[in-house]
Batch of 2 targets.
Target 1
Amino acid sequence: MTRLVENDIAGLERELDVYEEELLKKTGLNLSEVACAGGNITIHDLRKAAQSYRVAVVPITSGEGVIGGFTQFVASIIRKMGFQATVTEETDVAGFYEGVCQENEIIFMADDKKFIALNLRTKKVIDNGYGTGRGFGAALAGMADGLAGREVLVIGFGPVGSSAAEYLLESGAKVAVYDQNELRMKETKKDMKQEPNLKQALKIYDFLIDATPEGEFISPEDLTDQAMIAAPGIPLGLNAQAFEKYKDRVIHDPLQIGVATMLALAVG
Ligand code: 2YJ
């Protein structure tokens, strides 16, 4: 999983309203609606949860340390969904203690390996890869006006791609997978088609999930004219020309959909 850097999220907190307007325009869904679709809960249940849960986000200094603006941005995404959310003053274990003592029952925290949401009331723990995959699957379904019976190519079968693939299967889509790592290809389920050649596959599928950590490996001529792309992978797999051509049909963000869907899953 790619480690975010300060630049990936700089300025995004201020732009959250604009981000959500664009998401709505592309998918017909706002951030909470994408999260609820990915998390399999109703908006009504999300709103009820927003009244009963408080959320703390704990900065974690281990490994490569705190990423400037990361916890603040996570908290602002959660507030955007109608929940009370604070960043703890203390970090690490002291921050976790502070969050729990202040009666927060959902704790978000990330080190270099894992980013989790922990629901202390239900003991549920939600991984960012799982939330991100499902959320981007839901965003693609929104953009496509439903994916039941349609063929979707998932590129990259790590924690995000495999969760997106599962979600898409649940939604009735026909799922195909490409991963350059043969061991990962072996982890695909039998109801998922394996695509051995990426270039050939890109020419066929109109609906794509780019869940790779590779940048700029997709050019405009690789894609069908109708292609729609949900791209949780960082950096973006499309090169600049492909992005320019497809930008109205590309969903790509570093945290928003993943965090929102983690929250929906944590309270669901
Ligand atoms: O608390 C902090 O500021 C840091 N310890 C945050 C670390 C963030 N973690 C990562 O970037 C992970 N690799 C997971 C990111 C998942 C984004 N989809």
Note: The domain at 6-127+256-267 is CATH 3.40.50.12150 (Rossmann fold).
Target 2
Amino acid sequence: MNTAKPTINYGLEGIYVDESSISKVDGQNGKLWYRGYSIENLAEQSNFEEVSYLLLYGKLPTKNEYDDFTGKLKDRRDIPKEVRDVIKVMAPTSHPMDVMRTAASMLVMYDKDPNNRNLDATIDKVITLIAKLPTIAAATGRFREKKEYIPPDKSLGHSVNFLYMINGKRPNEFESKLIDLMFILHAEHSTNASTFSVLVTASTLADVYAATTSGIGTLKGPLHGGADEAALKMINAIGSPDNTEKYIEEALEGKQRIMGFGHRVYKTYDPRAKLVRSYLEESLEKEPSDEIKRHLQIALRAEKLMIDKLGKSKGIWPNIDFFAGPLYRVLGIESEMFTPIFVASRMAGWGSHIVEYWNNNKIVRPVEWYIGSLDLPYVPINKR
Ligand code: ACO
């Protein structure tokens, strides 16, 4: 028996688990590319539908391909009444991420051939999920507030339709740009915890819905996708801009994590956070409410303090989740709905990784170094 303890990479830190051509995160220089295109270019010039196509198929679509793809997304947006009914029962008392997980899981019931893993069938299931997850999120938001379900509107683009379904009014041009930006920025980010979780499930040859459900469960945690909600809660707990430094200093002294800061890969400013921050500043030019102004003032003071204290010394910089909450508030979205939006957009990335992984599938099965006892004598229960 081998008794030499191996090196253990806790949290799989620094471990390569596969090759991928979907996205590249350069954590030292703060850069991100989807299929070779910089996130800045895509955020400025593309839209979520095109980005989803790019991630899934590995190339930008022609006009015909784009029309066909967006047509499928529009046709599949609505969700079955039984799914709506379950959302309605759960939404008033459960966290929206729990509702999302349950409702997404239900979609397998409507797939006549859920275990078909050939390439076209897999892509088709992913398109269905990309189409329906925003509707599940919007229905969850509506039913939480005891409002009526708003069916999807085919005349609207993908993310804009989501905002319409949740808010009940058609967004203006600036709001449309903001929501699409957030969908693009959240669409993909290499092998993070939720994507890895999706791949672990997919690697057993479970279906696309099962893999997606695993991803939603993993994204919920505050160390991952749930940080957007937690960061805004912290900004609200800080309360006033003048309380920012005291609050953060005390939290750090108490060894608390400052939500929306730090990243396993980025050891500099997250490029997505830079983009969100710049659009948030632009929103200040559009007669924002006192709440929005206060959020941004607190966020900017917290950012400065954290960079001074931990940025250069420990590589802890703002990540996308820090400015996401204040930006969603500009769009009138409640904090519990932030991570469900993350799910709706990340489906494009999760799905692309399933397609890529199944091309060369191997079941995920790491090993643990056993430190317990061996060969203990079994004592019957009445003699213990
Ligand atoms: N606030 C204060 N200190 C921090 C923070 C933070 N947000 N993040 C890391 N640190 C400190 C740790 O306390 C640790 O300090 P030590 O070396 O003195 O013990 C050191 O930095 C390294 O931290 P680890 O937890 O080992 O780093 P890891 O790479 O495992 O964790 C993580 C990354 C989970 C993102 C972490 O930075 C964190 O908890 N951040 C807050 C939650 C958050 O914003 N998550 C969203 C990430 S982006 C995304 O998932 C979409």
Note: The longest helix spans residues 119-144.
